[in-house]
Amino acid sequence: MKTLIKKLVETVGPSGYETRIREVVRAEVEKLADEISTDAMGNLIVRKGKKTKNGLKIMLAAHIDEIGVMVTHVDKNGFARFTTIGGVRPHTCYGSRVRFLNGAAGVIGGERLDNQANVHSFENMFIDVGATSPQDSPVKIGDVAAFDRPFEDLGDRLISKAMDDRVCVAVLIETLRNIKSSINELYFVFSTQEEVGTRGATTAAFGIDPDVGIAVDVTGTGDTPRGAVMDVKLGAGPAIKIKDSGMLADPNLVNALVNCAQKNKIPYQREVLLGGSTDARAMQITRAGMPAGCVSVPTRYIHSPSEMVDFHDVENAVLLLTAFLSEAIVL
Ligand code: CO
Ligand code: ZN
What we know:
Blueprint: H1 2-9, H2 19-29, E1 35-38, E2 44-48, E3 57-63, E4 68-74, E5 80-85, E6 97-100, E7 105-110, E8 125-128, E9 144-147, E10 152-153, E11 157-160, H3 163-178, E12 185-191, H4 199-208, E13 212-219, E14 239-244, E15 247-248, H5 251-263, E16 269-272, H6 279-284, E17 292-298, E18 307-310, H7 311-326
Parallel strand pairs: 3-12, 3-13, 13-17, 14-16
Antiparallel strand pairs: 1-2, 2-12, 4-5, 4-9, 6-7, 6-9, 7-8, 10-11, 11-18, 14-15, 14-17
């Protein structure tokens, strides 16, 4: 599974430009699907099974897009100014490498700081792609890039850019592989444009019209020095979301997930996330609404170029989802 995670995280695919990563995922899931399609937003939708008498139509979503940058202007000396795609933060950018879809590479630099204690805002930063003029620059207005960092395997812990949400894309692929039969009709959606406002999941949920929605995404932790006050940590199991800033998970779905974890002796954590949201919000309020929830992989340094997860949490997320989806769900 680590090989799969490495392949997924190292593929460039900022929001709106998911073609390449979608093809990587498609190659993995093609043989496992009963039906596979792509919609106008670029969501890859994989159906497994047909709804039976006591079954439900369940949509699972893990987003394939990642945060990134887009060129807004190339100045006369070849320095590219940029805007952000999704929740990039200035203090994570200094010295960051970026990789454009066309293969061009660059480093993010900043104007001179009068006070070293300050952090530049994006207006005072630029991408240096090694050009000296707009003419010899390999990038132009509108070109997009993602952060460029290799996957690092530390044994129990893994580091990479785009763990958000490719690690959960791997979780969904492994879950799909594990499910032999289900009374439920399952839709595995590899969604687009989550980082710019859960846009892909919104249209996918409308099109599929499921009975229940479950997002699989990363969540923050409180286990680093002077970190956030949050009772989620690496290595203690996948987190079952109760609330984030965009959603209150359906309490019956939360209980069903908790009961499933307890029954199968899978470690889990209860999650209340104060900032951020996921595709579960989009599903919950699409059409006439549906019960929605989220299974999260605890992640440190989210939206930095080096996000860290614990591999056991990843494996246990697969076990939890496999067990949950294989059985009858009563909400
Ligand atoms: Co994110
Ligand atoms: Zn995410």
